Amino acid sequence: MKVNTAEFVISNTDYKLCPKDDIPEFAFIGRSNVGKSSLINMLVGNKGLAKISGRPGKTQLINHFIINKQWFLVDLPGYGYAKASKVQRDKWERFIVEYLTNRKQLNNIFVLLDSRLDPQKIDLEFMNWCGEKQLPFSMVFTKIDKLSSSALAKNLAKYKKEMLKYWEELPPVFTTSSESAFGKEKILNYIDVIIKDC
């Protein structure tokens, strides 16, 4: 798939106010500071589409972008150690859960994971929650340019070992670098296949 157009549509905190169009949606979520905005901008070829911040927790709304007038890319708030109050984090969690569990057009959740780190409890818990709710998701490892191929292989193996404690098989796995655009084609082609099956 080639991305020709990528436009911001709407931001809100209520899934009921999301676009009414019955077109496929693909959500991107991960711990704060995992490189989500950079990855989204790399995928669509627009460095200014999603706001990038050195401060975790910048995304605080459900953000819809229409891609090729054909599907929605949905940028969700990060979870984890964002320097926000517990009240604010609880609020984010509530509307994220409502969006993920009620949005009929949602075809896949791309769960972003920092490839440099050992498996994080919060990421494993989120993916297991997706499984319990029968929400389709993929694992997207970010920042692979920041470590050697042997260190990457080691960390991927650790994740596989942890995931297989709960899962019979792994969901789709992607490795990416926003710097080099590695992984872009595979993710976009994966989205394309799902859209064609809709």
Description:
This protein is an alpha/beta fold and 198 residues long. It has one domain (6-197): Rossmann fold (3-Layer(aba) Sandwich), CATH 3.40.50.300. The chain is 34% helix and 21% strand. A 7-stranded mixed beta sheet has the order 1-3-4-2-5-6-7, with helices on both faces. The longest helix is centred in the middle third of the chain and has 17 residues, at 86-102. The protein starts with 5 loop residues before the first strand and ends with a helix. The model is unreliable at 53-57 (pLDDT under 50).
Helix run count: 5
Give me the count of strands. 7
Main sheet strand line-up: 1-3-4-2-5-6-7
Q: Please state the second-level CATH architecture.
A: 3-Layer(aba) Sandwich
Would you tell me which CATH topology applies?
Answer: Rossmann fold
CATH C-level: Alpha Beta
Oligomer: single chain
What is the mean predicted local confidence, pLDDT? 90
Number of domains: 1
Overall shape: it is: globular
What proportion strand?
Answer: 15-25%
Task: Produce the secondary structure layout.
Elements: E1 6-12, E2 25-30, H1 36-44, E3 62-67, E4 71-75, H2 86-102, E5 106-114, H3 121-132, E6 137-142, H4 149-163, E7 173-175, H5 184-197
Parallel strand pairs: 2-4, 2-5, 5-6, 6-7
Antiparallel strand pairs: 1-3, 3-4
How would you concisely characterize the structure shown here?
The chain has a single domain (6-197), classed as P-loop containing nucleotide triphosphate hydrolases (Rossmann fold). It is 34% helix and 21% strand.
Key traits:
Rossmann fold, single chain, alpha/beta, 7 strands, 7-stranded mixed beta sheet, 198 residues
